[in-house]
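Many introductory courses stop at the sequence. We go one step further.
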Amino acid sequence: MLNMRNFNCTGAAALLDQELEKYIIQLAGLQEVRWLGRGETTVGDTTFLWSGREDNRRQEGVALAVHRKVMLACVSWTPLSEHLLCARFKHSAGHLSVIVGYGPTESADMGVLYTVHST
């Protein structure tokens, strides 16, 4: 998992796509993405699946960076909250489920952070 911290900056997704390609990383869980809502976008050879906050506060957020070749095997993905995202991939031995999770710091307000949105 990568803690992005500044993933919300212009060009950050393109830079990450280049780094993932450089190190031949085809699947990476991301934390502190800070993108709003839920969605899917492709930058270069990487598709980003994300789950963020719904209240216009650019905090927290998780994402999964998936190389285009691996994305062909993606059966489904579910944004659960700004702390959880689940994706399912088909492969020769069956299915693989990938869960991206973000754990807040000890100083965070725990009552507010663990709300799960139904989809």
